[in-house]
């Protein structure tokens, strides 16, 4: 069995800069939602480092690197108490249509999808 051309490890604070650069050069442009709304580096250059630091500090993030050390993949995760991040949401600010949610379901193949708005 051959050795893989990459390594997977939990991200640490020493990975924050490389992960942020990966997000600014790859993730920003390879995600269809970002492209659809025309997001630019200037739009996120202040946000991505904050998101990355907060996620990495949780101890649950993963970074994938080539054997040469280049970041080729990440999984940012974290735990936050919503009330510590944003104030409690006042639902009266939204119209009833905006408050309707889409409900997740599994299809016959076991893949996740969403029911129509309810």
What does this 3D model show about the protein?
The chain is of the alpha+beta class and 118 residues long. It has a domain at 6-80. The protein has helices at residues 16-30, 32-36, 41-44, 47-57, 82-85, 96-99; strands at residues 6-10, 62-66, 71-75, 104-106, 112-114. The strands form 2 sheets. A 3-stranded antiparallel sheet has the order 1-2-3, with helices on one face. Strand 4 (104-106) and strand 5 (112-114) form a beta hairpin. The model is unreliable at 97-103 and 114-118 (pLDDT under 50). Residues 97-118 are annotated as: Disordered. Residues 104-118 have a biased composition (Basic and acidic residues).
Compact summary:
The chain is of the alpha+beta class. It has a domain at 6-80.
Key traits:
single chain; 18% strand; 6 helices; 118 residues; 5 strands; 3-stranded antiparallel beta sheet; globular
What order do the helices and strands come in, and which of them pair?
Blueprint: E1 6-10, H1 16-30, H2 32-36, H3 41-44, H4 47-57, E2 62-66, E3 71-75, H5 82-85, H6 96-99, E4 104-106, E5 112-114
Antiparallel strand pairs: 1-2, 2-3, 4-5
Biased composition (Basic and acidic residues): 104-118
Region (Disordered): 97-118
């Amino acid at each position: 069995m051959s050795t893989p051309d990459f390594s997977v490890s939990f991200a640490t604070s020493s990975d924050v800069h490389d992960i942020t650069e990966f997000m600014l050069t790859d993730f920003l442009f390879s995600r269809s939602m970002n492209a659809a709304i025309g997001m630019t580096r200037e739009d996120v250059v202040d946000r991505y480092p904050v998101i990355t630091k907060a996620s990495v500090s949780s101890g649950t993030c993963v970074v994938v690197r080539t054997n040469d050390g280049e970041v080729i993949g990440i999984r940012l995760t974290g735990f936050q108490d919503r009330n510590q991040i944003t104030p409690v949401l006042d639902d009266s600010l939204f119209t009833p249509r905006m408050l309707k949610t889409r409900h997740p379901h599994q299809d016959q193949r076991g893949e996740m999808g969403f029911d129509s708005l309810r």
